Amino acid sequence: MFKLMDVTLREGSYVVNNALTKSESKKLVHELNKAKIDLIEIGYLGNISRDSGVEKCDSEYIDFLTNGEILNWEGKFSVMINPENFSQSTAEILADRRIGMVRLTVTKNNLERVKEIVNSLSKYNIAISTNLIRVSRLGHKELNELVNELVDTNTDIIYLADSNGAMLPEDIKKMFFSLKHLIMKKGGKQKLGFHAHNNLGMAIPNALVAIEVGCDFIDASILGYGKSSGNLSLELLLSLMRRQNFIYKWNITKILSLANQLTTVVRKSGFYLSQPEGAIIGMKNMNLDEVQEIYKLKGISSLLDKENE
């Protein structure tokens, strides 16, 4: 059976007017733990210029989330590293027993830096994941070249992230089959992960295909809360799996209750207002850097303004 990672906290930091308060974040983490979700991504490793929290996961933040407890929290958290912002001075938090995984975003432009960081993190007793982002923009040759390089590192997991929310189930199947073949061919032992976005409403179909082809880790968030049109909805995935008679350990009742409690909070944010623009982003297979560039060039605040010109 695959493992589930909740990404609500980190992905929520991208939402316009993110409405998750610190107290709500703590409650979220505790309820996810009670529901036996395997991993909870709490934010970025960050840098010393940031305040303690999602943008800088430090001891203060982790102690806040767990009330200073370690028992029942060992290996529960994951943190993300943006390689361009990585500093060895902030990495010591990875020795905290409550952190079970660290993930790095990977592109063809930062590959060498990622390899250096992965090597430096090998001393910590945690799983290392390299997350290939914006994979809907990668051709077969580009994907193979990146994966070939990553298999030769100490990374434990290779993720495919549909950052633009533009992928279809047939794309997922082809990419994961190619990925598995390359890893086996090189004698690698890396596990596989999938991170979906829901711009075209394909997060659930894509995730089901990833599970079908043997993916080991699946990312999801409560109510799909996250960047642009959001992510794979944790409560919908578990409900659909139960409808299909999947047997699993996760507590669907607690997850549905948590989703219901967070509905009011999410409505206070700009999350649902992002859905129409998110569809454009998925349809045109755009990334957020390109979107921001259009905003700047056209003097607009939404791609919908551009579409209505």
From TrEMBL:
This is 4-hydroxy-2-oxovalerate aldolase. Residues 2-256 form the Pyruvate carboxyltransferase domain. GO terms for molecular function: 2-isopropylmalate synthase activity; lyase activity. PROSITE patterns: PYR_CT. Pfam families: HMGL-like. It comes from the Bacteria. Keywords: Lyase, Manganese. One of its GO terms (biological process) is L-leucine biosynthetic process. Its EC number is 4.1.3.-. SUPFAM superfamilies: Aldolase. Transmembrane segments: none annotated. It comes from Streptococcus thermophilus. InterPro entries: 2-IPM_HCS-like, Aldolase_TIM, PYR_CT.
